[in-house]
């Protein structure tokens, strides 16, 4: 049953994610129109109450907000290239980088569309729950899409959602890689991954707690060594490199960490605290 008081939505792109988005809207009672290049992927949604748009133009013209969830930005531009966009509201939840988001925003606005960019920080099975975080950037949304999860509008710059998306990926992969490094080392002593995981989790949670204080140092551009100096940390990094090599596990990641600290120390920052490495992270790598 659809509820006419709810924002009408059109979903363009019914891959794994687009299908989950459409299903969440249907479940919440939004009038839901769908379109997909391979039309058969719409069958189950149509059976459950979605309206199949016969053309892209029809999907764009059905009012409310049109949500794009395609493989990449070139696919979005190819698909919308010849379409009439004047008067439409577009929300592009396709993954990409901030330059693609800004370029697409400029292009769509020139065609007369209201354009928001977005990033989905969730897997399809989480869509429709609070755990699904959807980041938006561009003009403040004038539609209601809370059925998808936790919606966060980051600001007017359309590139912000993509930037936060990749910054989140940096966190995710850094934590996972650090955990895998420790897991590989402990495996050499017969400790299995499940035994190490709770300890690793405790460290990750503890370090996460340092972030607000360290962020204050980064924003102030002042890095007094209140807890530990970088040169002390670098000595511990040397232990990590040496231990990895001695155990015959991969030492590339520990060496990278140490190389960055060594450069900062060579530049005179050895007596300052770890966040001084922001200077290394803020310029192109070597
Ligand atoms: N799946 C996930 O867990 C992640 C979570 C984080 C965000 N992503 C992003 O969501 C976008 C879509 O991902 P997806 O998983 O739905 O991807 P697919 O299942 O491969 O579906 C791709 C859809 O795109 C359509 N498509 C591709 N190229 C074109 C084109 N040139 N013209 C029209 N449609 C196109 C494709 O159509 P079809 O192959 O079914 O005909 C699918 O509908 C993506 O940016 C993720 O990074 C998901």
From TrEMBL:
The keyword rRNA-binding does not apply. The keyword Calcium does not apply. Gene3D superfamilies: N-(1-d-carboxylethyl)-l-norvaline Dehydrogenase, domain 2 (1.10.1040.10), NAD(P)-binding Rossmann-like Domain (3.40.50.720). InterPro entries: 6PGD_dom2 (IPR013328), 6PGDH_NADP-bd (IPR006115), HIBADH-related (IPR015815), HIBADH-related_NP60_sf (IPR051265), NAD(P)-bd_dom_sf (IPR036291), RedAm-like_C (IPR048666). GO terms for molecular function: NADP binding; oxidoreductase activity. Residues 157-282 form the NADPH-dependent reductive aminase-like C-terminal domain. Keywords: Oxidoreductase. Residues 9-121 form the 6-phosphogluconate dehydrogenase NADP-binding domain. Belongs to the HIBADH-related family. This is 6-phosphogluconate dehydrogenase. It comes from Amycolatopsis orientalis.
């Amino acid at each position: 049953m659809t509820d006419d008081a709810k924002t009408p939505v059109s979903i363009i792109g019914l891959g794994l994610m687009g299908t989950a988005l459409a299903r969440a809207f249907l479940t919440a009672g939004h009038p839901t129109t769908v379109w997909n290049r391979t039309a058969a992927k719409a069958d189950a949604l149509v059976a459950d109450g979605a309206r199949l748009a016969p053309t892209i133009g029809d999907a764009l013209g059905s009012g409310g907000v049109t949500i794009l969830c395609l493989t990449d930005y070139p696919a979005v531009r190819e698909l919308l290239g010849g379409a009439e966009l004047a008067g439409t509201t577009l929300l592009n939840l396709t993954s990409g980088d901030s330059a693609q988001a800004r370029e697409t925003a400029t292009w769509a606005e020139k065609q007369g569309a209201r354009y928001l960019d977005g990033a989905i920080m969730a897997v399809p099975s989480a869509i429709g729950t609070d755990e699904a975080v959807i980041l938006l950037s561009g003009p403040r949304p004038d539609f209601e899409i809370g059925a998808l999860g936790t919606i966060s509008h980051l600001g007017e710059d359309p590139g912000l959602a993509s930037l936060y998306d990749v910054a989140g990926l940096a966190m995710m992969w850094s934590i996972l890689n650090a955990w895998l490094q420790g897991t590989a080392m402990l495996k050499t002593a017969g400790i299995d991954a499940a035994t190490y995981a709770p300890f690793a989790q405790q460290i990750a949670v503890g370090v996460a707690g340092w972030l607000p204080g360290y962020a204050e140092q980064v924003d102030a551009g002042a890095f007094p060594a209140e807890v530990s100096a970088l040169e002390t940390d670098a000595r511990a990094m040397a232990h990590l490199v040496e231990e990895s090599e001695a155990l015959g596990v991969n030492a590339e990641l520990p060496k990278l960490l140490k190389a960055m600290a060594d450069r900062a120390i060579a530049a005179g920052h050895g007596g300052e605290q770890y966040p001084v490495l922001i200077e290394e992270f803020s310029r192109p790598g070597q």
